[in-house]
């Protein structure tokens, strides 16, 4: 399968400052890709170049079969985007807003408007004036507007800003459905790491204008529980000292450290099963066994410096 977006060796200077340095990443059809980074890392600048709102200094942006730099119009016909809060007319209804936008696109029928309204689950409120909408409803109307022309790539810059948990979940469901059912590739920037961990198939972390990590969360989720890799594991037990002795006897190579309510020891799935048996047979009660996987927040903090404008 070919990527719907392929960014390669992208560079951008503003004034004398290098804002983006040699950035390369791809988004596949049907994939939700998180675009993460500290304030000032260069996310919006990259997104603006992909959307054709900012000139590229060097490097390439391929959108489907089209060259985004040399053939911007055709390339952008495949893209829908929202940068921060979508602009809407508050005195018009949701449907009228979509109609205004549809009039600027070619071939958007009334049926298509009905279809996107259903997709973003605004059927019950589409006849209300937009000034009465919650932020979450405005965001979903923004998504409806962005997908009216059936883009293959949807780009959202910080769409979860200011949304409450219900609004975030609704947006997540809408994007998941677009990715799964219509094979739309989604590039979404956000600072909400826990939310991105739930929403994204992969994440790309940018720091000081460079891509510093790409992580395949979907593959990690699929392999979780199946892989027999050794991972740091927290053992919450009735008698931590006795547990430490028993675990040390069972795994002489292992490093056992005290932890809240128990001990910590790295072990594989099979080793965990053997250890639980041993502890229980020896009269130590096991309350929980928690394998620890690196969270997105930990990866983010490890790979980013905070983009304090150190590049020139
Ligand atoms: N028009 C401009 N003139 C000068 N510097 C700019 C301009 N636009 C962006 N920058 C600088 O480029 C860097 C990257 O900004 P950008 O908005 O792309 O970051 P971001 O990752 O989207 O940050 P945030 O998470 O805060 O939105 C910042 O240092 C910013 O100050």
UniProtKB/TrEMBL annotation:
State one Pfam family annotation.
ABC_tran
SMART domains attached to this UniProt entry? AAA (SM00382)
**Residues in ABC transporter domain copies:** 5-233
Q: Which family does it belong to?
A: Belongs to the ABC transporter superfamily.
Q: Which domain of life is it from?
A: Bacteria
The protein, known as: ABC-2 type transport system ATP-binding protein
Note the PROSITE patterns from the entry: ABC_TRANSPORTER_1 (PS00211), ABC_TRANSPORTER_2 (PS50893)
GO MF annotation list: ATP binding; ATP hydrolysis activity
Instruction: List each coiled-coil range.
Output: none
Q: Which UniProt keywords apply?
A: ATP-binding, Nucleotide-binding, Transport
